[in-house]
UniProtKB/TrEMBL annotation:
Renumbered residue ranges of the record's region Disordered: 296-323
Keywords linked to the UniProt accession: Coiled coil, mRNA transport, Nuclear pore complex, Nucleus, Protein transport, Translocation, Transport
A GO-annotated cellular component: cytoplasm
Similarity-based family: Belongs to the GLE1 family.
Coiled coil listed as a keyword: yes
Segments of skewed composition (Basic and acidic residues): 296-305
Function comment: Required for the export of mRNAs containing poly(A) tails from the nucleus into the cytoplasm. May be involved in the terminal step of the mRNA transport through the nuclear pore complex (NPC).
KW Hydrolase (keyword) present: no
Residue ranges the record marks as coiled coil: 162-193
Protein name: mRNA export factor GLE1
Compartments reported by the entry: Nucleus, Nuclear pore complex
MF (Gene Ontology): inositol hexakisphosphate binding; phospholipid binding; translation initiation factor binding
BP GO annotations: poly(A)+ mRNA export from nucleus; protein transport
Length: 637
C-alpha cells in the first residue's frame, strides 16, 4: 500500500509544500494574490517573527533596498549548520507525519476491504443456506409425490387384478358386436353395389330403348324393315320392367343383376342393328335423291344442250351446231401433253448457261410490251400486238437499243411462245384479280395472237388448266403416294417457304384467272382478222357451263368460278342464246345452287356464295344482265 502511495509522488509534494509554507508564514502576513492583494509587496519586512519554535534557526535577509540591514550581510558558519540541522529535523518530522498518515490510510483501506469480504461471506452463507433449505423442501415434495403415485399404482393394480376376468368378458362381447356390425355393413355395401349396378343397367336400357322408339316414331316407312327387331325389343322391355319392380319390393340378388345385364346386352344389340339399318336406309334415300336430282338435271340440260343462237351475227355455222358430247378431259390431256413435250424440248435450252443472256433478251422482248398493254387507245394496243407478233415471226425487234431475234436459236420461237402464254396467264392472277377491267385489253391482244399462232393457243390453254384446273373443269382427287403439298399445288395453291397460301388469297387469284379466261370468249376480233374464225368463242363458254354444273360442287371455289364466269359472259350468252341460256340459268338456280349451299359448311356461306346468290336472285327478279365493266366496243380496233 505504501508503494502505491509513493508512486503517486504524494509524499514528496506534501513535504515541499509544508516546508515552503513554514518558511514564509512568519514573514508574509498579507494577501499577495487576487483582488485584495496589498498595493506593494516590496516594502514588506522580511523579518522572521519568534512565534515558531524554529524561528531561531532562520535569519532572513532584508530586502535589497532595506535600510535596516547592510547589503553585505551573511550568515555565519554556525548559523548555517544550525539552520541545516533544524531543517533536517523538520524534514524528518514531516516524513514521520507522512508515514503515519499513509499507515492510517492503508489501515483504513484494509479494514474496509476486510469488512467487504466479511459481508460477502455472510451473504454467500445466507444464499447457500437458502438454497439448501429450498433443495430440501423440493426433495421432500418429490418424495411425497413418489409415495402418492406408488400408492395409486398399487391401488390401480389391485383394481385391475380384481376386474381382469370381467374385462376379458366385456372385450369378447365388444369384439362380437363389432364383427356383427362389420358383417351388416358389408351386406349393406354389397346390396347397395347390386342396386347401383341394376340402376346403371336401367339407365342404359332406357336410353337404348328410347332411341329405338324415336326411330320408329319419326320414320314410319322404316318401321316395316325392322319389324322383327321392334317386336323383340318390346318383349325385352317388358322383362326388364318386371325385374325392376321385383328389385324394389324384395332384396336384390346377384342373379337378378346378371339378368339385367343380359337384357341390357340384348337391347343394345338390337339398337345397333336398327342403327345400321337406319344408315343403310338413309344412304339409299340419299342415293335415290341424288339420282333423281341428276335425272332432273340431265332432263333440264337436254333442253339446253343444243342451243340455236337467236342472234346469228359474228357466229359461224360451226359454232351454231354444238356436239352432243363434250369430252373436256380429252382436250385437257391434248394441250397438257403438248405443253410437256415443249417443256422437255426446252429443258437443255433453259439450263444452258451460255444462253443466259439470250434468254434474258427474249424475256425483255416479251415482258415489256405485255406489261404495257392497256385500253388507252387502239393505236397503243396495235403497237404492242405488232411487237409481239414480229418477235414470234422470227423478225428482229429492238429492246433497249438492242436488236433481238427469236430465230437466233432453233428453239427461240417456241421458247418465246411458251413464255408469252405463261406470262398472260400470270397477268390474270396478278393484275386481273385486283383490277378486273384490265382483262379485256389483255384478251384482245391474246385473241389476235392466238388467231395468227394456233400453237400458242394450245400452250395458253395448258397454262390456264395448270394454274386453275377448275377451268378444265375438274376437281382433282388425292392420289396414292401423293404428298399434301403436291396435291394442293395441283389444285392451284401456291406455297411460300413450305407454307400454303390462305384461302382468301387463293380464291382471289383463281377469280382473276377465270375472269381473263372468260374474257377471251367475248372478245371481238380485230378488224383485220374478221375473216378468221374466233379461236375461243362463246360456244366454249356454253360447253364449260354445262360440264361445270355436272360436277359435284365444292365449298367456296365452285361459287367463285361460277359467279366470275356468269358475270363476264352472262350478258353475251343471253344475247346469243336467248331462251336457251335462260333455261340453263333456271337449272343453275333450281338444282345447282342448292347443292352448292348444301356442300358449304355453316359459317363459310359468305363471300363467294353470297355474291353468287345475289347475282342469281337479281336475274330471277327480272334484272337485265349488263355487259361487264371494261369490255372493249366491237369497233375498238
Amino acid at each position: 500500500m505504501d508503494e502505491d502511495i509513493d508512486k503517486t509522488g504524494y509524499s514528496k509534494v506534501k513535504t515541499e509544500a509544508l516546508c515552503k509554507a513554514f518558511k514564509y508564514c512568519c514573514t508574509v502576513s498579507e494577501i499577495t494574490i487576487g483582488p485584495e492583494a496589498s498595493e506593494s509587496i516590496t516594502d514588506v519586512e522580511c523579518v522572521m517573527k519568534p512565534t515558531s519554535p524554529y524561528s531561531k534557526a532562520f535569519q532572513l535577509k532584508s530586502c535589497k533596498n532595506s535600510p535596516e540591514f547592510p547589503s553585505d550581510f551573511e550568515l555565519s558558519l554556525n548559523d548555517r549548520l544550525e539552520e541545516r540541522f533544524y531543517a533536517k529535523k523538520l524534514l524528518a518530522e514531516l516524513n514521520n507525519a507522512c508515514n503515519v498518515d499513509g499507515q492510517k490510510m492503508k489501515f483504513n483501506i484494509l479494514k474496509k476491504h476486510e469488512e467487504t469480504l466479511e459481508r460477502a461471506k455472510e451473504d454467500a452463507e445466507h444464499v447457500r443456506a437458502n438454497i439448501e433449505s429450498r433443495t430440501l423442501l423440493r426433495k421432500l415434495e418429490i418424495d411425497e409425490k413418489k409415495s402418492s403415485i406408488q400408492n395409486r399404482l398399487i391401488v390401480r393394480q389391485q383394481q385391475l387384478n380384481s376386474s381382469s376376468l370381467s374385462n376379458n368378458a366385456a372385450k369378447k362381447i365388444q369384439e362380437l358386436k363389432k364383427q356383427e356390425e362389420e358383417q351388416l355393413r358389408e351386406k349393406a355395401l354389397q346390396r347397395k353395389k347390386l342396386y347401383d349396378m341394376v340402376y346403371k343397367n336401367e339407365m342404359e336400357f332406357k336410353n337404348a330403348y328410347s332411341e329405338i322408339v324415336a326411330v320408329i316414331t319419326n320414320f314410319k316407312d322404316f318401321k316395316q324393315r325392322i319389324a322383327s327387331e321392334v317386336e323383340l325389343a318390346s318383349k325385352i322391355n317388358v322383362q326388364f320392367i318386371s325385374l325392376i319392380e321385383r328389385s324394389k319390393n324384395d332384396s336384390i340378388t346377384p342373379a337378378e343383376v346378371e339378368v339385367s345385364s343380359s337384357l341390357l346386352k340384348d337391347i343394345l344389340t338390337i339398337s345397333s342393328k336398327i342403327k345400321q339399318e337406319k344408315e343403310k336406309y338413309d344412304d339409299e334415300l340419299k342415293k335415290k335423291k341424288e339420282k333423281e336430282d341428276e335425272i332432273n338435271l340431265k332432263k333440264n340440260l337436254e333442253h339446253v344442250k343444243s342451243p340455236s343462237p337467236s342472234s346469228p351475227p359474228n357466229i359461224s355455222n360451226d359454232e351454231k351446231s354444238e356436239k352432243s358430247k363434250y369430252d373436256y378431259m380429252e382436250k385437257y390431256h391434248s394441250v397438257t401433253n403438248y405443253l410437256m413435250e415443249i417443256e422437255q424440248k426446252l429443258k437443255p435450252f433453259i439450263t444452258d448457261e451460255t444462253l443466259k443472256k439470250y434468254r434474258s433478251d427474249c424475256q425483255k422482248a416479251i415482258n415489256l410490251p405485255v406489261n404495257a398493254i392497256s385500253p388507252c387507245s387502239a393505236a397503243h394496243l396495235t403497237d404492242k400486238l405488232k411487237k409481239l407478233t414480229t418477235l414470234l415471226n422470227g423478225q428482229h425487234v429492238t429492246v433497249a437499243d438492242k436488236r433481238v431475234s427469236a430465230t437466233s436459236h432453233p428453239l427461240g420461237i417456241i421458247y418465246c411462245k411458251n413464255l408469252l402464254a405463261e406470262k398472260i396467264v400470270k397477268l390474270g392472277e396478278q393484275v386481273v384479280s385486283s383490277k378486273p377491267d384490265a382483262a379485256f385489253a389483255i384478251a384482245a391482244v391474246t385473241v389476235a395472237i392466238w388467231i395468227e399462232f394456233p400453237d400458242f393457243g394450245k400452250l395458253l390453254l395448258a397454262h390456264f388448266y395448270r394454274r386453275c384446273p377448275y377451268l378444265i373443269p375438274v376437281y382433282w382427287k388425292l392420289e396414292e403416294n401423293q404428298t399434301e403439298e403436291e396435291y394442293y399445288k395441283k389444285l392451284g395453291f401456291t406455297y411460300n417457304d413450305g407454307v400454303r397460301e390462305e384461302l382468301n388469297m387463293f380464291l382471289k387469284r383463281q377469280g382473276g384467272i377465270v375472269r381473263l379466261f372468260a374474257s377471251l370468249m367475248i372478245t371481238e376480233k380485230k378488224k383485220s382478222l374478221q375473216s378468221q374464225p374466233h379461236p375461243f368463242n362463246l360456244g366454249e363458254g356454253w360447253k364449260f357451263l354445262v360440264a361445270f354444273v355436272k360436277l359435284e360442287p365444292k365449298p367456296e371455289i365452285s361459287a367463285t368460278i361460277l359467279y366470275d364466269v356468269l358475270d363476264v359472259i352472262g350478258s353475251s350468252m343471253l344475247k346469243l342464246y336467248g331462251i336457251q341460256f335462260n333455261k340453263l340459268l333456271h337449272v343453275i338456280c333450281k338444282f345447282y345452287l342448292p347443292r352448292i349451299i348444301e356442300a358449304t359448311p355453316e359459317g363459310k356461306q359468305g363471300g363467294p356464295l353470297c355474291r353468287l346468290k345475289t347475282f342469281l336472285e337479281s336475274i330471277v327478279k327480272g334484272k337485265v344482265l349488263q355487259p361487264p365493266k371494261g369490255l372493249l366496243p366491237s369497233n375498238f380496233w
